């Protein structure tokens, strides 16, 4: 396999991941050489992904990325995701389920991947606490999702992701840089999330992206989180993706 195809393969998986959590997303980045080879025998290509963030708030997401040709080639792609979150808001607890199906296009300039998506999203919420519980009506809206995965040099990775949704007037963004070492990209990350309830969350930490565990590829992040009116505390995020 040529060097250009290998680089394309390393980007595609994580770029699927960022669509997850608009509830709070994780990002979509790199499918690997193995996934690229596996997809060569099939006209369609599917990438499965999942994410868990453990902190004072908990976020879980799963989903799939589908390309009619192959996910490591330029062209039209679709992302479907379903996620849930639980967070404290003062004396209340808010549980949210969020789902989306977005269509988009991915470009492969020589230095990385650029992708843009748009599509419908929906959410359901329940608020409990103070001896009462209330389910809110389902809401539907539009999601916009864009990201860049770039190799400034052969040994470095820069990522920028932004996901916005009108259902809850939410926005999530992440910036990360990494240097290839010990079979993973290691470096700092910064992320932000906010929505119409006034909830805001900032995270600053370190990540290890694209290390392999069997057929699965992993991103692990840890650091400090500041969310709402809570005291600063730790967070840990695990993202996994694999070709199907």
User: What is the radius of gyration computed over CA atoms, rounded to a whole number of angstroms?
Assistant: 18 Å
Could you say which overall geometry the principal axes of the C-alpha atoms support? Answer: globular
Biggest sheet descriptor: 12 strands, antiparallel, barrel
Strand order in the sheet with the most strands: 1-2-3-4-5-7-8-9-10-11-12-13
Number of helices: 2
Description of the molecule:
The protein is mostly beta strands. The chain contains 2 helices and 13 strands, in the order H-H-E-E-E-E-E-E-E-E-E-E-E-E-E. It has a 12-stranded antiparallel barrel with strand order 1-2-3-4-5-7-8-9-10-11-12-13. Strand 4 (92-107) and strand 5 (112-129) form a beta hairpin. Helix 1 (3-17) crosses helix 2. The protein is globular, with a radius of gyration of 18 Å.
